[in-house]
Write a structure and sequence with these properties.
With about 220 residues, the chain is α/β, with parallel strands linked by helices. The chain is built from six helices and 13 strands. It has a nine-stranded mixed sheet with strand order 2-1-3-6-13-12-11-8-9. A two-stranded antiparallel ribbon has the order 4-5. The protein has a two-stranded antiparallel ribbon with strand order 7-10. The longest helix is centred in the N-terminal third of the chain and has 16 residues.
Amino acid sequence: MNKLIYAVFGDYYHPSAPISEAFAAMFEPLAKQGYTYTEIRESELADRLAEQPAAVVIYKEDRVDPTLNPPTRWQDERTADIIVQYVEAGGGWLAWHAGMSCYPVPGPYTSMLRGHFVSHPKVNAPVTYTPASHPITDGIAPFTIVDEHYFVELHSGPTDILVSSTSIDGASTAGWAHSYGSGRVCCITPAHKPEGLAHPGVRQLLTNAMLWVTKQL
């Protein structure tokens, strides 16, 4: 099978370097299985999907400059439609942290994700992530990291809850996954800080998610 992954990392609030470093470390066991990945700009994504990569991982919110009113955005209607068509035709999609943030609701992209980011507390605090039973979470024990605690809203449509999150600020869903057409979609909220990105639990979650969206789990 095609084992090429495209990665889109970094935005106004999330510098790309820590994300790239964490993903490279996570990717080592996948590389041993013949996977490769290439980081691309969001402006390239729509055209690159014509190459039918095995999957895309995105850690980037929709707002380019959130200080503007209204903020500038990168995902236009054409790009959203191409993404949805790519997944429906059999592609894999991993929306990681900011990859589900500030996209239009309702909209084709968030409808495909079947959920979206709502808010997070201003101050990072210890967040405990508790896995449910699923191939993506196999072998992962509950773990706690200081994190930007994402609170999300799930939409209608079947999906499997992967992880729940709790902190002094409350509780939320922290991961979910489902088939979409002939493809697969996974959404994972941790992590934000470099220490969290480097946590073995986060890295194993990402590795397993990549295997699942590419139909190897």
